[in-house]
Amino acid sequence: MSDFEQQMEELFDLEENKTNVNTEFIAGLTTFLATSYIIFVNPGILGEAFGYYGLDETNGLVTATVLVSAFSSIAMGVYAKNPIVLAPGMGLNAFFTYTVCAPWGMGVHPYIALGAVFWSGVIFILLSVFNIRTEIMRAIPSQLRYGVAIGIGLFLALLGFADHSNFIQHTPDEVGGVPIVVLGNMFDDTGSLPDRLLSADSGMLVFIFGLAFTSALVARKQTGALIIGIFGTTAFAALMGRFLYPDEAVMVVMPDEIVAAPDFGLLFAIFQDQGGDIGLPIVEALKFAVLPAMFAFLFTDMFDSISTFVGVSEVGGLNDENGEPRNIKESLIVDGGSTFLSGLFGSSSGTSYIESAAGIEAGGRSGLTAVAAGVLFLPFLFLSPVIGMVPLAASAPILVLIGLFMCKPIKSINWDNFEDAFPAFMAMILIPLTYSITQGIIWGFLTWTAIKVALGKADQVSMPLWAINVFAFLALIYAD
Question: Which residue from 69, 99, 169, 229 has the fewest beta carbons nearer than 10 Å?
Answer without folding.
Answer: 169
